[in-house]
Amino acid sequence: MMLFRTNWQEAPSRNIFNLLCAVCCVLASSAAGAESLRLDLGRYAGRTEREGWHQVALKDQGGAAGKKILLYLDNPASGEAGQTAIFAASSLGAGPGTAPLSLAVTGKGGMYGTPGLAQKKYARVAEDVPGMALGGTAVAEWPASAARDGIFLKDGSLTWTFSNLKPGAYKLEIFAGRSAEGAGRMTIAVDGVPGLSVSGSCAAGTEENERGLYFNRTVTVSPDSRSLAFTVKAEGGFGSLNGVVLTPVPGPAGGTGRSLDIRGTEKVPVLLEVSAAGKITPAVEGEEYELRINLPPYESVTWFAAEAGRWPSGCNRVLPWSAASLERALNLRNPAAGGSPDPHGMLALFRLENGHYLVMLPLCGSGSVSWLEAEGNALKVKSGTLGTEAMEDKKEPLLCFALSRNLYEAMRVAWGKAASHPRLKGHSLWRCAKDARYPEPFRYLGWCSWEQYRRNINADLLLRASRAIDASPLPVRWLLVDAGFQNTSRQFQLRSFLPDGKKFPQGWGPLLEQRDSSRPGKIRWMGLWHCFYGDKGGIDVNNDLGTDSRFIRKGGTYFPGKSMKDTQEFYMDFMNSVRGRDGKGFDFVKVDYQTEYLKRVKGTGNPARQSVWCSRSLNRAVDSSGLLGMINCMAQGTLHIFNTGTSPVTRCSIDYSLNNLDASRSHLFQSYTNTLLLGQTVWPDHDMFHSSDPVCGDVMALSKALSGAPVYLSDKPEDFQPRRIWPLVNREGKILRPLAPAVALPESCFIHPLESASLYGAIAPLHNKCAAVAYYNLNTEPTTRSGRLLPSVYEWAPSMMQGPGAASSWSVPAEGLAAYDWRNRKGVKLPDGGIPLSLPSLRNGVMQDIFYLLAPIEKGWAVLGNPDKYLSPACIEEGIIRTDGKMTFTLKDSASVLIYREGGRPVVEGAAVRSLPGSEDFYLVEFPGELPARRVTVLKGKP
């Protein structure tokens, strides 16, 4: 007999008890895969079964004090529950000659309902456990009956200790649930390991916790302790514990299958195909190909993934997670993301011990997608269709990796090698190849309805907003209608390409008539938001699209992707509905929810291929319809970044959120670090922002300027803040843009800014070899962080430049750099030892940054442009002419210009020249008025 021995004590309530128990388990070896110990404590016994899993449950035999609780184990063949079992030695145990594997549970809590086996055989749930979420984030509904099963705790805790385990790495999964009433907050933590914890509300029916808490971590059992303990705690009410699964994780040298050895000294990028060198063995139909990767010694890693439970739908939530090892990276936390990273990744960067950077980039093809998968410090690359069908083409690209002492060069050559593969070539052009066709509206300031109004828009509101924008003195040149206009079912399933007749009784005509290209500084263009596959719930079977035969049907919902031809026809109709058959409709489109498509078509034949069809058909339709361009949103998945076509813009971050510090901190480092990946083929969109944001408005405005992507406001027009808007644009609303998007500095690519003791930095190249560099204190603790602005940072400015003039780095000029502190309006010649930097996390409750402009000094001169603009060097045309006695340049759209001159006040005809306060050798030149272009000659003055 296997007994769960319990010493019961009386308590004030019959639902509170003291539990002390020990269970001895001797398990059978599994014939297929790693053996797992599974404790099913309640309804969540419904996890999908897998061969070789030992399913164990506790069952209350009557519930009276003093009664025994038997440990049940079901028959792997029939699923019938049995009270006794005899097994051979287990691979989870410590080994021959040691005590058997045991489990002890201690603590105080409460027991409700009937925990354990309520049915003879476990039923499958709607989604497998990876669909669950970490930290209480909603993913799918739990059955209502779940609140009546499991071990329920009330203001108590239980500590579960496994003893006599075999040393090594284990995946520990813990399922905790909800309470129907009197819900509290639960915390799950591995004892003695800081950071290995998750917490969340247990309130039934809340949006944040529809599915419950899911803890999924790799933990290490040392040879000394041979034990593993975790504590589950409920505070402020009830919470349930529903299941525990413990699975050994094979080490890099163990396990089965083929492996790839990376030496860390490879000279050229390497691209592997699914059939490459016979190293990859296909799994059964509909499953994945797999290759284990043996890494060279490394100092740190950055793992790019959404938070746990999102994969394969990364939305706009692919975040960089940096640590000293993969295992530590997987245990980081990000409050804005709602949890820790998923073990499925779409990029990994390694800083090797030999000084090189290693980039590992999983790829997609015409009918497959690849991803990295980490368990502890073990790494694999996998590839599959994500559906029921096997790959048809065994020449699909799998993985590209590259090494360099320059991080940006390693990323660039890896991408270049990948994009040259026949399955990908031409489907995602380099960013520089798209610049000649960069949509004209995106060069100007815009406005979007979403952050202010969400789905609560209608014709009257948008007409009032457009008129108020035009009445404003600020030059907002385009308006984007975001979600909320669609004709949909209650489940957000699209029924028509026409807008909701109740909200827009006259259609789009009255709004589109507000456009006026004849008035400078007023709305000239309008754009329309749409979902990649209809609306976020799909397409209703009761629709007026007239194309039902073109769709995949799942229940009462249609989705595009049935065939390439059907998909092309659908998107052509879709985009024509935006532009209008007469070409007088909207001017551009924003397309959202691209990566959610995979989740929606789960269970179909080949979701990867279907997604590729949709992306390529959409790109072609946008180009053919007459639309000026497209903004990709929620398109950070591998299948989409390799299929942007001619589209030049993709969102690089989670949504901007008004007055939200956690979101803003995450937004900044996600945007700048993700640029390393996304910025190869698109300008990375940092999203809209409120210029009136009192907490984050200053830092948000600057980050939009540094992005080089569209800049668009989201405030009510009457709330616009000119002091944050005018530094972004000229008088006609044209954005002052960098030569390439700002990207995280190399050292910042390998820190977790929310916990780091270092400042986080980003840099962008500007005209005439100037640079913009920004630093942030993103630590969530109320601390001050320090650093130094060194001349060597200038070398990284051109890291994201492409095409003519591109360089892997810039040399610091022999005469040095003029540095302008934009926030404090002071200049200094940058010393060889740098400038000390210090920044609190907040100043008077407001988020801050440090922002410097750097200009090369040649022949004693430097010019920094109009200091009223964030990217002031963009006001100077390329081609400054310098001699010892004078400097000549063209100043655009400005009445003032900041210059540096050693050895005396310079002279400019027709302008006043005054010293910049508190700044040696910096001078502000001021003209009587602003001109579109002015040729300026500056003469050397007397000392």
TrEMBL record:
<keyword id="KW-0119">Carbohydrate metabolism</keyword>
<keyword id="KW-0732">Signal</keyword>
<feature type="signal peptide">
    <location>
        <begin position="1"/>
        <end position="34"/>
    </location>
</feature>
<dbReference type="Pfam" id="PF05691">
    <property type="entry name" value="Raffinose_syn"/>
</dbReference>
<dbReference type="InterPro" id="IPR013785">
    <property type="entry name" value="Aldolase_TIM"/>
</dbReference>
<protein>
    <recommendedName>
        <fullName>Raffinose synthase or seed inhibition protein Sip1</fullName>
    </recommendedName>
</protein>
<dbReference type="InterPro" id="IPR017853">
    <property type="entry name" value="GH"/>
</dbReference>
<dbReference type="InterPro" id="IPR008811">
    <property type="entry name" value="Glycosyl_hydrolases_36"/>
</dbReference>
